Amino acid sequence: MTALGKDLVGLEHLSPDQIRLILDTAEPFKEVSERPIKKVPALRGKTIVNLFFEASTRTRISFEFAEKRLSADTVNVAASGSAVQKGETLVDTAKNLEAMRIDMVVIRHPSSGAALFLGDRIRSNVVNAGDGKHEHPTQALLDLLTIRDKHGKIAGLKVCLVGDIQHSRVARSNIWGLLKLGAEVGVCGPDTLMPRGIEELGVCRFRRLEEAIEWADVLNVLRLQLERMEKGFIPSLREYYRVFGVTAERLDKAPRELTIMHPGPMNRGVEIDSRVADGTHSVILAQVTNGVAVRMAVLYLLAGGRPELADAAKGPAGGAAE
Amino acid sequence: MRSLLLKGGRVIDPSRDFDQTADVLVQDGKVAAIGTGLGSPDGADVRDVRGKVVAPGLVDVHVHLREPGNEDVETIASGTRAAAAGGFTAVCAMPNTDPVTDNQAAVGFIVRQSVRAGLARVYPIGAISVGQNGEQLSEFGELVGAGAVAVSDDGKPVVSSHMMRTALEYARSFGIPVADHCEEPTLSAGGVMHEGLVATRLGLKGIPAAAEEIMVGRDILLAGLTGGHIHLCHMSTRGSVELIRRAKEQGIRVTAEVTPHHLALTDHACEGYDTHAKVNPPLREAADVAALRAALKQGVIDCIASDHAPHAYDAKEAAFDDAPFGIVGLETAFAVAHTELVIGGALTLPELIARMSTAPAAVLRLPGGSLQPGAAADVVVLDITARWTVDPTTFFSKSRNTPFAGRALTGRAVLTLVGGSIVHEAVATTP
Question: Catalytic residues of B, which ones?
Answer without folding.
Answer: 307
